[in-house]
Amino acid sequence: MDLKKYKNSLFYLGVTGGFSALIYWIIKRGKELEKIQSLVAPNEKHSSWNDFIVSMKHNFQDPLAILLAQIVMIILVARLFGWVFKKIGQPTVIGEIIAGIVLGPSLVGMYFPEFSAALFPEASLGNLKFLSQIGLILFMFVIGMELDIKVLKNKASEAVVISHASIVIPFALGIGLSYFVYNKFAPQGVEFLSFSLFMGIAMSITAFPVLARIVQEREIHKTKLGAIVITCAAADDITAWCLLAVVIAIVKAGDFVGSLYVISLAAVYVIVMIFIVKPFLKRIGDLYSSKDNIGKPVMAIFFLFLILSSYATEVIGIHALFGAFMMGSIMPDAAKFRMIFIDKVEDVAVILLLPLFFVFTGLKTEVGLINDPYLWKVTGAIILVAVVGKFLGSALAAKFVGQNWKDSLTIGALMNTRGLMELIVLNIGLELKVLTPEVFTMMVIMALVTTFMTGPALDLIDFLFKSKNVSEEEELILHTKYRILISFGNNEKGKSLLRLANSLTKKQKNSSSITALHLSLSDELHSFNMEDKERNSFEPIFEESEQLNVEIETIFKVTNDIETEIADVANQGDYDLLLVGLGKSIFEGTLLGKVVGFTSRIINPDRLLDKFTGKEGLFENSPFDERTRQIVSKTRMPLGILIDKEFQNIDQVFIPIFRSEDSFLIDYAQKLIKNNNSKITILDVNGHVQNNFVLQSAVHSLEEKHTNNLEVLIERTVSLAFLAKQDLMLISLESWKTLLDSDHDWLIGVPSVLIIKP
User: Fold this and answer.
1) What whole-number distance in Å separates Cα of residue 488 and Cα of residue 23?
2) Can you give the pTM of this predicted structure?
């Protein structure tokens, strides 16, 4: 061993020493070349410090250095303004748009011209423009994926009626307005048709992303009103982008007849995307939709199609953004598959690249151009036409199809939101030289005002109708029932499941129902003892229901296939939740008892998970394990699996959040707080509650309403003393598997567990 080290040392010294000497010799010989060159062309001597200063100035003026400095400044200012506007109850996008205007000639350029010229020199704007366009392409790809086309088929036709009315009415008013402003504000040489069509489409846009976020923040996304508004916005987005593609084709062609060639090519493109590309992508999606991670080759295929789609629509003449939107809308329907792509793309697009677009828009928005009372009157007229067309147009259409006045006005206020989508349209108009800088600035102000007014308008509507109309939530409670089906094998499990179901519904008895299901194998029963078997099976359940003061319905069936029968009853009965039980035996000597008692480090976590899911036959002598596994795979509705560890009360509930998809557990937490006054502790295991918008807003809303009943812990571990005080752990099925894989120490002291499959 020592000899080997000695040889290695000698080799190292020989190689490094020998080649170092060679380098020195070459450099020394090269010095002689300088003497010969200086005789031919003598050089002036320069100061090293001066050379350094000149070099640094050159580095600062390098296009890449300027672009990186711009990105740093833009992100900092955009995030700051976004945070400020979020604090005052406005969408973050409003603050980011304002940040763009502030960095542009309207403020920084006006009062700090030297700084503005150094940070945003004219020659650098081309790089900023193209990078922001890449951000928009990725953003429109995400928007296309987030739109559920099937919603338009499944929802009531009234949503499509409202949506199209909210496009046609403002479109017509926008064209009417263009008649009065064309002579003074249209660019020289632009035909009235092109100018009026762009004014019309600019009035018709609804910002689907901003609207969806407001609906989520207002907690109306699960109501009938929320479903109608989201459907309207989806239909509006699709229709408006198709109209925009036609308008761009007309503008570029110069007249409608000339645009027919472009429209024909666009139609061929859409047919190819729907009937050739979409089935191909679906096959890939079907192969990889079940995987947690998608490999780089598969990601490369989809991103290649995104770029090709955008390239095709840009070459055709209907703008690259339409291709990105189209590509997103034909992505495979699997929600998990789409979420993987959204997670990968959204952060880069929204946080890094999209603010560049806001600032690029701000650099072209010169509020100083509106320097005359007449121009402000025209701006006011544009805002008035936009609000009347979109707000009142949508509200009147909603009222016509049967909505009450409160919901109609709410729909109008939400559909009047324009935000980012409006800026995209306006930038396209300015790029095509259909809009002058003055009109562009007026329309940007209109986009800001109409988006800014959405929140106050909704608050005013809620205030005016507070005492006149019941809330959407109350209306749902009056007209719908939350139906729970409990399926039990023995009496103790049945009573535990009934106590759990009652805790979820006890204060909403008029708007909920509980059904108890008991199945018996056909070879265990004969006609003479069937009636007695049914009565004996349900007698303890009825006694428990009397103590709980809850009415229950019962279903008794004889079958040869218990797990299939349970799934069929649940799927066909229109239930909102199925509860099944695993007995206390699961803790004894197996998963959470003695095996875990001398720590699960002894056992491979994969084998532990296999035992739970029935892959290793842990319960070979007990049919419940296999039945539970079959029920999980066969039910098409929310399923709760209760692991009963002497479950009695449900006063203290512990909810670990391992994944962003666990947001649905907040709904169950809300039910337990409202109906049972339970104390809920949420453990944010991986920071999803802090970083995921949906989870963060849901938890924040629950905290505001039930401050004393909710606590959020950000620690990754909990003590056994804490677990000893808990009555129940509520966890998703996927997170339960994650918990077993992670081999948490607190599995030893975990209380009864309710595992939810959404």
Assistant:
1) 84
2) 0.56
DSSP conformation letters of 504-539: HHTT-GGGEEEEEEEEEEGGG--TTTHHHHHHHHHH
Within 10 A of 429 (CB to CB), how many other CB atoms are there? 26
Q: What is the mean pLDDT of residues 217-246?
A: 74
Q: Which residues are CB-contacts of 122 (< 8 A; sequence separation ≥ 6)?
A: none
Alpha helices in 276-353 (DSSP H): 278-288, 296-316, 320-329, 335-347
d(CA 694, CA 346): 14
DSSP secondary structure letter of residue 590: T
For 517, half-sphere exposure in the C-beta direction (CA atoms, 13 angstrom radius) is: 23
- pLDDT tier, 255 (very low <50, low <70, confident <90, very high otherwise): low
Q: Write the DSSP string, 31-52.
A: HHHHHHHHHHSPPPP--HHHHH
Residues across the chain: 758
Q: Among 326, 322, 348, which Cα is nearest to 131's?
A: 348
In this prediction, residue 477 carries a pLDDT of 42
Question: Would you give the end-to-end CA distance of the chain in angstroms?
Answer: 62
Average pLDDT over residues 54-83: 86
Residue 681: φ, ψ to 5°: -115, 120
pLDDT band at 288 (very low <50, low <70, confident <90, very high): confident
Provide the residue type at 228 as one letter: I
Give the model's confidence band at 619: pLDDT under 50 very low, under 70 low, under 90 confident, else very high: very low
Burial of 634 from C-beta contacts in 10 A (0-12 / 13-18 / 19+):
middle
Q: Which of 329, 276, 356, 32 is closest to 152 using CA atoms?
A: 329
User: Looking at residues 236-244, what average pLDDT do you find?
Assistant: 78
Q: What is the pLDDT of residues 503-548, one digit of tens each?
A: 888 887 777 888 888 877 655 444 444 556 677 777 888 888 888 8
Higher per-residue confidence, 691 vs 142: 142
Q: Please state whether beta strands 639-643 and 710-713 pair in parallel, antiparallel, or not at all (unpaired).
A: unpaired
Which tokens hold the place of 630?
């079959």
Single-letter code of the amino acid located at 470: V
Q: Which two tokens stand for residue 278?
A: 């979409």
Dihedral angle over CA of 456, 236, 360, 345, nearest 10 = 100
Name the residue type at position 325: F
pLDDT over 70, % of the chain: 81
CA distance 393 to 409: 10
**Cα–Cα distance measured from residue 146 to residue 5, given in angstroms and rounded to the nearest whole number:** 62
